[in-house]
Design goal:
about 290 residues, 13 strands, Rossmann fold, single chain, 6-stranded parallel sheet, binds NADP nicotinamide-adenine-dinucleotide phosphate, 3-stranded mixed sheet
Amino acid sequence: MKILVTGADGQLGRCLQDRLLLTAHDGLALNRNQLDITDRQAVEAAVVGFRPDVIVNAAAYTAVDRAESEPEVVRRVNAEAVGYLAEAANKVGALLVQVSTDYVFDGRTTRPYRESDPVNPLNVYGASKLAGEQYATGANRYVIVRAAWLFSEYGNNFLKSMLKLADGRETIQVVIDQIGTPTYGGDLATSIIRLAEAEAVSGIYHYAGGRACSWFEFSQAIFAGLSKLRPEWRTPRVLPVTATEYPGVATRPAYAVLDDAKLRACLPRVTGDWELAIEAVMPVLTE
Ligand SMILES: NC(=O)c1ccc[n+]([C@@H]2O[C@H](COP(=O)([O-])OP(=O)(O)OC[C@H]3O[C@@H](n4cnc5c(N)ncnc54)[C@H](OP(=O)(O)O)[C@@H]3O)[C@@H](O)[C@H]2O)c1
C-alpha cells in the first residue's frame, strides 16, 4: 500500500515513519517544509503526484494554550486544511485518516467517552479539531482516530518535561484532578497503520493508550520508572495540585478518558499500555 504522511516531523509523524519502516508499505512522509497542508494547490499536487492509497494527516497546530490567541491560524491548519486533504483524497480514491483529540469533549462525565457521545469542546484547539473532523467527512473514504495525552521519544510531551525536571528539583506540582489515558505515539502509529490495512473501516475510532490516570499518577509512574532505571538520578517529590490552583490559558476537560471498545473489536491484537511504553522509551531518553 502507498501511504502518505503529513506533519512528518511531529511526534506522531516521526512514530509513523518508524513504524512504516517495519512494514512493506511504500511510505512518503512529508514535513511542513515539504508540504504545508494549508496550501490547497500543494496538497493536490503532492497527493496526485504520489497517488497514495491512504493519507494519514499527522499535521496539526497543537499548542493548546497559544491557540487561544490565534484562532484563525489554528482553524486554517486544524480544520480548513483537512478539507483540502479530503478533496485531494477523493481525486485519487484514497482513504483519509484524520487524527483527532479527546479535547472535542467537555469532560463533564464519569464514564469513558464513546465515539457517539455528544461533543462540546472547551477551547479553541478542541473546537478546531472538531471542525477538522467535520471537514474529514468530506472524503469519500475516511477514518477519524481520536487520541489523548500523546507522548513519545520525539517532540515536546509530558514524559520529556518530567524527565527534564528530574535534574535537581526537590519538589514539583502536578495536577491531580484531570483524568485521561496517556498514549504512546508508537502504539498509536501501529494502530493507525493496522486500521488503514483493515477492510471496511469507517467513521470515528477512539484510541486509549492504557489505564486511565491523572497527570499526578502519570508523573509518579514516570519517576518510579526513572528511579528503577537510573537510581543515581535524584527524582523530585510530586505534590498534587488542582487544575484551578494551576490554571493554563486554555480550559481543559477534567475527564478525558476514551472508550476504545470499537477499535479493539476491529483490531483485536492491538493494545496500548503506556506503563510498558514509558519503560521502553525511558532508556533512550535518559542516556
Ligand atoms: N500531543 C497530544 O497530546 C495530542 C493529544 C491528542 C491528539 N493529538 C493529535 O495527534 C496528532 C499529532 O499530534 P503530535 O503530538 O504529533 O503534534 P506535533 O508534535 O505538534 O506535530 C504536529 C506537526 O504538524 C506540523 N504542522 C503544523 N502546521 C502545519 C502545516 N500547515 N502543514 C504541515 N505541517 C504542519 C508541525 O510542524 P511545526 O512543528 O513546524 O509547527 C509538527 O511537525 C494531531 O492531530 C493532534 O491534534 C495530539
